[in-house]
Write a structure and sequence with these properties.
heterodimer; A: 270 residues; alpha/beta; seven-stranded mixed β-sheet; B: alpha+beta; 70% helix
């Protein structure tokens, strides 16, 4: 911990380190990390996938998002990581509306959001190491500056021996871990994960959850995890949001081993 | 860890096809540019040779009378030189028609005087003809500049056509690269999306494609220019052998400007590809979130 006190490097619970942050954390003190105001989304002219959604996620919060397959979880996540624009309403990140941002400003916001895609979206021609280092290359960092950290992170997710393997030669679970490592390598202010443990065994699932929790607790990263896995939900005391019929409801205020408490419907943001 | 892998996959079949298309277009464009330049050179060479030249034909006079006429001509203002051609000179001129065995004695030949006048002197032909007529000479004055003007006009059209061909080929190459860039962008949409979501700016993504097509066009342009150099060298060799025999073609050679055209071809191709790529990618990215 002395190391952690004098260095921007985060020491994880098991003694392993995460690399320095790539930008200032001054926005930690923003009131709101994510705000959705009356957000609706439809594809083409069909009916709304998401309808009049209000959501407020505070910095350093940890939330689950559940819902039946096809309910719109991934669409909601796409709105959060700025891959889609809402048909109506407004999405704000760190107190900034994304409606009228320039493309460079959007890019700057995206750099503060780490995403674990359900379908991983690894680049097949790059090695596991290069896939994880991709966001750092985008930031213009020198490989000599991050090599050891990326290797360490990959070792932490159990892929220390597969640094030079390309995604097509990795199993689904290994690809998922590479995708997670890529999402957290810059220690983003917001981490959005779509079914992040869907392809790994329970032990690795717990390990990855610990990684998310470490980021959340030590770096105050706002974490949103979309999952079907209620076992995963029960591992953490966190609010659970559920999408049904295009509407977002706070299904459970706190999940976790201590038991489930129903949400207060009057609570802000739901 | 070795060198970083490019974020765009190295190459695929489409790029190989594009390489050949761009190389072929650069070859044709370089040849057209060389043609435009050589017709310009030929026109200058031909016209500078014949401008100010006149041939005075005096039928039915002997050599002594012809010599007197030559002196009359040489004394005319604006005339630099007047040379009375010998029978051998005339035989050499008519060699393409009568061969090298000489002219038949029965052939009635006029006396010919080759005149070199100041090219800027105006109305030289009619002036000489009038003076000779006044001196009692039946004469015909052929002003070479009259048909040199036709040649010049024709070469001007050829040059214009060649320049239009260069412009069209360059535009085609740019359009092909833009089309290929768009196709590549669609084919690599997955990579572009991941880069975007990792926070890559449009310029960063565009630079990946620009670098790719800049190098491709530079290489393809070099191949096209080298092929054009080979074709030009072969043409020059052929022209030198046949032109030397007929005396009709000007002397062709590769000079500094020709080599400059060949050096600039790949650079122009690369630069055009880069600009076309940037415009295409930036425009396409704007349509994405």
């Amino acid at each position: 911990m002395v190391f952690a006190a004098i260095s921007p490097i985060t020491v994880l619970a098991d003694g392993r380190k995460l690399m320095p942050m790539t930008h200032s954390k001054h926005d930690l003190f923003d009131d709101v990390a994510v705000r959705l105001d009356s957000v609706s989304l439809s594809y083409d002219t069909s009916e709304d996938i998401l309808s009049e959604i209000d959501l407020v996620l505070k910095p350093g919060s940890f939330s689950f998002l559940t819902g039946a397959s096809g309910a719109g979880k991934t669409s909601l996540l796409k709105l959060l990581y700025l891959s889609l624009k809402p048909t109506h309403g407004d999405v704000s990140l760190f107190g900034r509306s994304t409606r009228n941002l320039t493309r460079d400003q959007l890019s700057a916001l995206r750099r503060r959001v780490g995403v674990v895609f359900q379908e991983f979206r690894l680049l097949d021609h790059l090695t596991a190491y290069e896939n994880v280092a991709l966001p750092l290359r985008v930031l213009g960092r020198k490989s000599s500056d991050y090599r050891a950290d990326v290797e360490e992170l990959l070792a932490w997710v159990g892929l220390g021996e597969r640094l030079h393997s390309k995604p097509p030669t990795l199993s689904g679970g290994e690809q998922q871990r590479v995708a997670i490592a890529r999402a957290v390598v810059t220690q983003p202010d917001i981490l959005i994960a779509d079914e992040p443990t869907g392809n790994v065994d329970p032990e690795m699932g717990s390990r990855l959850m610990r990684l998310f929790l470490e980021l959340n607790r030590r770096r105050h990263t706002t974490v949103v995890i979309a999952t079907h896995d209620m076992g995963l939900v029960r591992q953490v005391e966190a609010p659970v949001y559920r999408i049904a019929n295009g509407l977002l409801v706070k299904d459970v205020e706190f999940s976790g081993p201590a038991g489930r408490r129903r949400a207060d419907p009057r609570e802000e943001g739901v | 860890m070795s060198k970083e892998t490019p974020l765009l996959p190295i190459e695929d079949a489409r790029e190989t096809a594009l390489f050949f298309v761009v190389a072929a277009l650069c070859f044709l464009a370089a040849l057209a540019a060389l043609s435009a330049k050589s017709t310009y050179g030929a026109a200058r060479s031909w016209t500078s040779e014949v401008e100010g030249e006149l041939t005075v034909s005096l039928p039915g006079v002997d050599r002594r009378a012809a010599e007197a006429a030559r002196k009359l001509i040489e004394g005319t203002s604006g005339v630099r030189e007047a040379v009375l051609l010998t029978k051998e000179d005339i035989a050499e001129l008519l060699a393409p028609n009568f061969g090298n065995r000489g002219l038949p004695d029965s052939l009635p030949l006029p006396q010919l005087i080759a005149v070199q006048a100041d090219p800027k002197a105006s109305n030289m032909g009619p002036d000489l003809s009038r003076r000779l007529t006044e001196a009692g000479y039946d004469n015909a004055v052929d002003e070479h500049a009259a048909w040199a003007g036709d040649v010049r006009r024709m070469l001007g059209i050829v040059r214009l056509v060649a320049l239009v061909a260069v412009a069209l080929l360059a535009s085609t190459a740019i359009a092909v690269v833009a089309f290929a860039t768009h196709a590549a962008l669609l084919a690599r949409r997955d990579i572009v999306d991941v880069l975007h979501l990792a926070g890559a700016r449009d310029r960063f993504i565009s630079a990946l494609f620009e670098r790719r097509f800049w190098v491709l066009a530079l290489r393809a342009g070099s191949v096209g220019a080298l092929l054009a150099l080979g074709a030009a060298a072969a043409t020059i060799l052929a022209a030198q052998s046949s032109g030397a025999r007929s005396g009709l073609l000007p002397e062709l050679s590769l000079d500094f400007v020709d080599l400059l055209i060949l050096v600039l071809t790949p650079l122009f191709a690369g630069l055009s590809a880069r600009i076309a790529t940037r415009i295409t990618v930036m425009r396409a990215l704007k349509e994405m979130m």
